[in-house]
Amino acid sequence: MGGPGRRLRELIAGGETVLAGGCYDPLTAKLAERLGFEAAYLGAGTVGYALNVTEAMITVTEMATAIRQITQKTRIPLIVDGATGFGEPLHTMRTVREYERAGAAAIEIEDQIVPKRAHHHKGVEHLVPLEAMVDKVKAAVAAREDADFIIIARTNGVRNEGVPQAIERGRAYRAAGADMIVVAGRTRQEVELLHRGIGAPLVMFVMPGRLESLNATVKDMARLGYPLLLDPHVALVSAFRAIRDTMRELKETGKTSLDPATVTAIMQEINETVDLPDYWRLEEMTVEKPARS
After folding, report:
1. 3-state secondary structure of 76
2. Which of 5, 60, 96, 221 has its CA 20 to 30 A from that of 67?
C-alpha cells in the first residue's frame, strides 16, 4: 500500500481533482475523513489561531505535535503547511524530517522572509530572493527519507511581483526538485498562463468565492493544471462562528436555543467519530464484562 506520500501521489495521478479538507485538530481531521475527503490539509495559520498565537509565532515542534496527533487518528493523507521552513535551509531540513516522521504526506514551503511577520495576515508579504528559496527547496528534497514524500513549493509572486515573475519562480522551484507548486491566479487567464508557463502540477487554496471568480468547479481544476486544491480554514471559521453565537446566547440568557434531541444526535455522532463504540466494546470484553454468577 505504501506510505502517506505514495497514497497522495496515487490520488493526484488519478486524473480527478483532489480537494483536501481543512482541519486543525484530530476531531476535525477525522470528521473530514468520515465525510469522504480523500486528503486533509493542516495550515500553520489555522494551528496558530487555535493556539491563540497566529502563524507568525508558531513553531516547528508545535506543528509536528499537531501532525502526529492527527495522523495517529486518521488514514487519509495529510498535507501540511511548512510556512517558510522555519528558517534557512538548515532549518528547512529539520522541518521536513520532523513532518515526515510525524506522518505527513506532503509539506508546503513558501518564499516569504524569515521569520514571518503578523502583517502576513493583512496581506503584507515580503518575498525572499529567488535563489534563497531555491536553496530551501533543494534542502527539503535532500532531507526527505521517503522519495514519495511530496515537496510543494509556494510562491506569492503573482500578487507581489506579477505573473511573469511568478512563472520564473515556479519554474526555478520545480527545477530545484519541488514536486508541485502553489501559485494563485486571480483570473481564469492567469490560471491558464501559470499552468502553461511553469509546466508543473499546480496547487491552489480554495477560499470562499475563489472558484466562482474563475468560472470553474472543483472538477475543472485538474484539467486547468491544478490537480490538488487545499481548503485552508473553513473548519476553523465555521467552528468559531457556531461556538461564539451559542456561547453568547448562553451568557446573555442563561440558556441556548439548541434542541435537546439535536444535541443528543450530535453527541452520538461525535462519539462515533472518536471511535467511542470501539472503546466500549473492548471494555465490555474485559473490565466491564458481566461477572459470572
Report:
1. coil
2. 221
* Per-residue model confidence (pLDDT) at position 1: 61
Amino acid at position 188, single letter:
R
DSSP state of 35: T
Other residues' Cβ atoms within 10 Å of the Cβ of residue 123: 9
Query: Where would I find the beta strands (DSSP E) of 60-121?
Result: 78-81, 106-110
Q: Which residues touch 286 (CB under 8 Å, ≥6 apart)?
A: none
Residue found under cell 468559531: 240
Instruction: Kindly give, in sequence order, each residue whose CB lies less than 8 Å from that of residue 3, ignoring residues fewer than 6 positions away.
Output: 105, 146, 148, 149
Distance of CA 29 to the CA centre of its chain: 10
Give dist(CA 38, CA 32) in Å, integer: 8
Average pLDDT of the segment spanning 85-89: 97
Residue-wise DSSP of 187-255: SHHHHHHHHHHH-S-EEEE--TTHHHHTT--HHHHHHTT--EEE--SHHHHHHHHHHHHHHHHHHHHSS
**Residue 146 backbone dihedrals phi, psi, to 5 degrees:** -110, 120
DSSP 8-state symbol, 271: H
pLDDT band of residue 19 (cuts 50, 70, 90) is very high
DSSP 114: S
Residue 59 Cα distances to 38, 96, 107, 171, angstroms: 27, 13, 15, 29
Task: Single out the residue of 154, 3, 144 nearest to residue 71, CA to CA.
Answer: 3
C-alpha cell recorded at residue 266: 450530535
Largest CA distance in the chain: 81
Q: How far apart are CA 50 and CA 243, in angstroms?
A: 13
Q: Which domains does the chain have, with CATH numbers?
A: 4-238 (3.20.20.60), 258-293 (no CATH)
